[in-house]
Amino acid sequence: MADPRITNGLKFRPFDIIFLVFVSDLAFAKIHYSIREEMEPGAFVGNVAEDLGLDIRRLSARKFRLVPADKRQCLEVNLESGILFVNKRKDREQLCGQMPACLLSFEIFVEEPLEMYRGEVEILDINDNSPSFPESVILLQMAESMAPGSRFPLESALDADVGTNAVSVYNISPNEHFGLKVETAEDGTKLVLLVLEKPLDRERQSSFQLMLTATDGGNPPRSGTARILITVLDINDNAPRFDSNVYKVSLIENSPRGTLVVLVHATDPDEGSNAEVTYSFSNRVSQKIQELFSLDPRTGEIRVQGTIDYEEGDNYSLDIQAVDNGSPAIGGHSKVLVKVNDVNDNAPEILLKSIASRVPEDAAPGTVTALINVIDRDSGKNGQVRCDIPKNVPFKLQKTSSGHYKLITSDMLDSETTPLYSIAILARDSGSPPLSTNKTIQITVSDINDNAPRFARPMDTVYVMENNAPGTSIFAVTASDPDQDQNSYVTYSFIDNLIQNLPLTNYLNLNSMNGTIYALRSFDYERVKNFQIQVQARDSGVPPLSSSATLNVIILDQNDNAPIIASPSAQSGSAGVEVVPQSAGQGYLVTKIIATDADSGQNARLLYQVLKATDPSLFIVGLNSGEIRIARGILEQDSTTQRLVILVKDNGQPSLSSTATIHFSILGNVTEIFSESSNLVRNPEHVSDINLYLIVIFGSTSFIFLITIILLIGIKCKQDRNSPEVYNSPSCCDGLDDSNNAFDPRPTLKESLNYTGAGEIIRIPDTHHYSVCLSPESAKSDFLFLKPYTPSMSQDRC
């Protein structure tokens, strides 16, 4: 018993009861309350949250809610306090009719974690209805020949209340001829019979007026009355009698209209019109039953005329009367009990009690995502239902002890593979043939940041042409992230690198949003040929994930450097001067143009050609080698001063070039050397006045020195020729050693030239050697001439 409570101005009586039944599965609990009918709106029923042990402060956060089981619900719960109260006044008789127990079921749901509780409120009957008879006046006719003990059925009183508040006692006003007898039929209804206790004598009393009272068992009791008017007749003293007091039949639900239910039959021992019987329903048969069944008044056939639905009613009781045509008419009574057999005519119903529309992809197997209730209005085997879902989804159904199904995860989820699941739930009963229902629910798998951005190529090569314009885009990196929303938003940045000991950001800029790389300055292939950078892609998840890619940046050469002529070098703007002996034959190597190009590849491949020449037929230049050779023998009429302009160009597009101007002096003898040199020096086109003086001084000194040497050599040769000891020894005119007697008018470059970027080293060819010898006719002329030196000359004499 609970103590009386005062809530919202209403007082609860001590018989208000609360029951709690807890079941471990799905945190399931069942609560039971009892209240009286006709309570005012706002009346307190119970504190559901307190009785279930829920934290009242978290009711709103856990989405505390009440779900009624049907439309009769007249209860409401305060979502803040958890108090269950009456939201509108209800009459128990309107809600449940004559049902012995009036229960209003509901379910309570909370989330985080998902829990479900079932509850019911029993509406207790109060004695608010008085018994009443279908008719306020009951008319009876009785033959005076009726024997004592004859019974006459009376209409029972109706009371909308149930239990102890229903009709419990019948009384009749005091009289000497009639009494009452109450019998209970097989279906539990009470039959009120008027019993003749003393023979009637119409001549003494032709009519009677009695008062019939029905009293219920309430406290205080209520009652209702009806008048019985009895007319005593003088004839027809036999009432029709049915073959059976109770007819029991079975009927399949959904039987078509016109189906014969039962044939009732009554006989009357009287003769003539007193034995003719007419069948009809008694006044106790409700209008609803009369809409379902028809009774032929002549034949007694009871047939189906409405829709028989097992779920609406599984049995019916029909009171039948047979009345003869006597005067007065006398009737007999019987009862037909119809039992309706269930057929599988209702497909299962799938009810979603709760569903988590979004499930994180890292949810552990066994996470509850939905709570499902499946009902079938059929009974027995027809109402046994099995639920299934497809096997190719990471979910499964788990049945609870309360008959519900939990939809739980059976495997790990991946929003990148399947972000949305459409799960078809199939409910099939066990009837024959079975009926089924499909319902599809959708569950979204919410993304977590479990994937780092991924570059299409972790290593890549970027080619950039030198002399690029600053601010030009040179490359774009792209990384994809299969995650969703902010977890897939990727930003890009450089990982600290240095280029020529300078920060990478001095050279490049990276758009953090789209990964485009821009050059901040112009690259010079001759200074930087390649470098590596690392780009990082980071998503916006919490915590963020990242990955990196390496870019090998290769600077491509552009033909932006003209060839540089290293030899022969021109000093103070003067052209190079070369001496050519007049005796030089075809193919004689006069000199070699040596040039370099800071570019590489085809841009550094050099080609040589004669641009201008005093005599184009005298000299040729090697296209690739730069060697200048005699094209033909030197003739006496050839000018002793030759000028060549050599064009050196690279193989780039467009080609760049440089020129070298070389003056050649063709000398026939020593005298000519100086005369030609003097003429050459005096040429104002080539030298200045100061240079002229220096050349004259140098030439004079050299001439005196050279004459002295020639004289000494001549004396030595003459002595050797006259000496028998040395006759067979090598002469002074033999080929001179490179280290002692070679004469090279050009300076020898002893270092090799390294062509930058060309990938090869070109060495300068061996220097050209010349021997100084006396002519066989030196005794006559004493002139000195130059002759090209070859290795074989070491064995030749002058």
Name the CATH class of the largest domain. Answer: Mainly Beta
Binned, the helix content reads under 10%
Largest sheet entry: 5 strands, mixed
Radius of gyration from the CA trace? 65 Å
CATH topology of the largest domain: Immunoglobulin-like
- Quaternary structure type: single chain
Identify the CATH architecture of the largest domain: Sandwich
Share of β-strand residues: 35-45%
CATH superfamily of the largest domain: Cadherins
Strand adjacency order, main sheet: 3-4-10-9-6
Terminal residue distance: 152 Å
* Tally of domains: 6
Shape: rod-shaped
Count of strand segments:
58
Mean pLDDT: 80
- The helix count comes to 6
Low-pLDDT sequence parts = 1-27, 670-688, 723-798
Secondary structure category: mainly beta
SSE order and pairing:
Layout lengths: L5 E2 L2 E2 L6 E6 L4 E9 L7 E4 H5 L12 E4 L6 E3 L5 E4 L5 H5 L6 E8 L4 E10 L12 E7 L7 E4 L12 E6 L5 E7 L5 E7 L10 E10 L6 E11 L7 E2 L3 E7 L7 E4 L2 E2 L9 E5 L5 H6 E3 L5 E4 L10 E10 L6 E11 L7 E7 L2 E3 L7 E8 L9 E4 L6 E5 L5 E5 L10 E10 L6 E11 L7 E2 L3 E7 L7 E4 L2 E2 L9 E6 L2 E2 L2 E2 L4 E3 L5 E4 L10 E10 L6 E11 L7 E4 L8 E6 L7 E4 L1 E3 L9 E8 L5 E3 L5 E4 L10 E10 L6 E11 L2 H13 L6 H34 L30 E2 L6 E2 L7 E5 L3 H4 L2 E5 L10
Parallel strand pairs: 4-10, 11-17, 19-26, 28-34, 36-45, 47-54
Antiparallel strand pairs: 1-2, 3-4, 5-8, 6-9, 7-8, 9-10, 12-15, 13-16, 14-15, 16-17, 18-21, 20-24, 22-25, 23-24, 25-26, 27-29, 29-32, 30-33, 31-32, 33-34, 35-38, 37-43, 39-44, 40-41, 42-43, 44-45, 46-49, 48-52, 50-53, 51-52, 53-54, 55-56, 57-58
